[in-house]
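Work Package 4 report. The design task specified in the project plan requires that, given a folded chain encoded as structure tokens, an amino acid be chosen for each position. We show below one input record used in the internal validation round.
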């Protein structure tokens, strides 16, 4: 909850509050939503977008494009760095089409939207 409060104090109230995750990440998101009603929906009149997908980067890209198409605004998404060797992630991506969520999401968007000015923005930090 403190992370969202810090975000609001720093940047203002976001248009959407989303949570993603697969396996344990999805389970944790559901636990947080149950423990803190309004964290992801209902608070300040936020709407909730939900989707199911076997690939998290594809789901995030689809949601970002949906938000862009519905609002007419280019959405921004923020990721944290994944621990590990970046070369390993590059090789996994080249061999299997899998890898770290942020660069794979960006690649999905890059292939789907040719004009970079029309693509949702990916931030990693």
């Amino acid at each position: 909850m403190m992370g969202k409060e810090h975000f609001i104090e720093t940047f203002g109230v976001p248009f959407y509050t989303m949570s993603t995750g697969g396996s344990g990440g999805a389970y944790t998101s559901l636990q947080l939503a149950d423990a803190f009603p309004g964290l992801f929906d209902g608070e300040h009149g936020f709407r909730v977008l939900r989707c199911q997908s076997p690939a998290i980067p594809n789901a995030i890209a689809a949601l970002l494009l949906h938000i862009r198409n519905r609002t007419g605004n280019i959405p921004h998404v923020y990721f944290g760095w994944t621990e590990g060797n970046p070369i390993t992630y590059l090789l996994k991506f080249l061999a299997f089409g899998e890898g770290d969520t942020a660069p794979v999401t960006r690649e999905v968007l890059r292939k789907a939207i040719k004009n970079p000015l029309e693509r949702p923005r990916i931030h990693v930090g």
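Residues 51-125 form one domain. Validation will be extended to a larger panel in the next phase.
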